[in-house]
Amino acid sequence: MSATLAPQSSSTESVRTSTPRWLSVIGILGVIAMAFTVWLGLWITPPDVTQGNLARLLYIHPPIATVALYWAGGVAALASLLYLWPRTRSFFWDRLAASAVEVGAVFSALTLVTGSLWGRPAWGTWWTWDARLTSTALLLLLEIGYMALRRVPAEPAIRARRCAVAALLVAIDVPIVHFSVNWWNTLHQGGTFLDPGFKLHAHGSMLWTFLLGFIAFTLIFVWLLGMRYRIEVLQDHVGDQELEVTLAERWHEGDELAPVGAGPVGVDSDDGGAA
Amino acid sequence: MNYVVAGYVVALATLFVYALTLVWRRRRWSRAFDVVRANEVTVGGDVQGHGTPPVSSGRP
Amino acid sequence: MWRDALLVAGKDLRIEARSRVGLWQVLPFAFLVLILLAFAIGPDDAPLRHAAPGIFWIAVLFSTVLAIQRSVAIESGEGTRDGLRLSGIDPAGIFLGKAASIGLQLAVLQIVLWAGVTFLFDVRVHVVWLAITASVLATVGLSCAGVLYGALSAGLSVRDTLLPLLVLPVLAPVLLAGTKAWQAALAGNASAGTEWLRLLIPFSLIYLVVGIVLYGPLQESA
Q: Rounded to whole angstroms, how far apart are CA atoms C116 and C113?
């Protein structure tokens, strides 16, 4: 085993527990953008020529898939690489990768659900085993596997390295999902709005709503990522102190009951509060 | 149209609920973190906590 | 015996609730088996729809092996098993408790897995009581046989490879009967299905009784 330079955890003084301003702003902008997307998508835009109202799901399904696949997958892969590279190694990347995988899993699941709801009226079935859907389901399972791996107790540096490798293995599925519609004969169509050459095909209000959907879900993704990252940091700093935390909480269970200076009576009520 | 509405509702509701769980988890771990920090200050780094209960963590 | 069983069942379930191994590992594994079998049987819908009950039960069987390994592993720490024996808890109670805990986890697994199968393979159960009865009986058999064989292989260094080898042939009747019963339930053919229930009932009863009787002696000799 090579001698790894374990990254130094920051001391407790530098850990902030409140949400940074810029993140809150992004969250608010995301919610506003989402509200407009819903309003435009469900009411203002006209029904599609071929798909009718069903096309309205295309304002949310591709953006959700984009977040799941490219933003979450990309962040997880990039962060894992940066962690593994000795020169940029830092727990920041490890925690960012873990956060990206979890948020990505939520979006992957939503991709499958929204896609399914579109597919039922369009194809007559909730599910089909074509390459794109199957590889996306596989992506979700891989992400869940990563999350299970992350929960196995270990030294932070060891866990970080293990998870970084696991995240890169998860990321292998991303190009497979992307190219699945080209490599195999799939029921799922190729890009409706984008083809592999990345050219746009929609027009008018539909195009703007579509773009707005992308922006909204991207902003929401960033906010969720930031929140999840914060949790990861706090968890790591509490770390193996969890027992002390639980003990402290037990000690203080009687605080609200016994007034300060009650002496032995106060101690007894503490014991009474212990489960 | 029902499928469309269902899709929007599921997507937004899921993200909303997930956001709520994140907020709740952050609060919970923040509290735990405050306790740890209080331990370090009062017990002077010895967080085995033998015998002496730590100073109140200020839990709500 | 019953109170001890409740005690042990509660302990195992609480450990599961805290560690969530079932949720994070066993359940995704079951879905993984579904997907792998779907790969193997091919993208056409008809063969998949036909094979759906079999796929479901294979996934349940493999997940049972995982659940048993987990249940055995809980007590594999230094002296834990000895402590359990010395505690005076009725061994039959331990058996029932562990079986109940696994049974409950398997029941939840089957519910979720069945929702998945319905969704992924486009099938629907028409004779619900048949499907549920078959599942309940099968679950009893799976848990009892599983805990018994888990105890058999516990403490051995080759435990992880030995357990599947020992227990899966024993569970084969459950696979057969369960699949046939569910096929009948999907097809709406109740009478054909009840034939297979007649296989599940004695199987489950036998392993329940054998487990209660043999678990104690098994622990003593381990």
A: 5
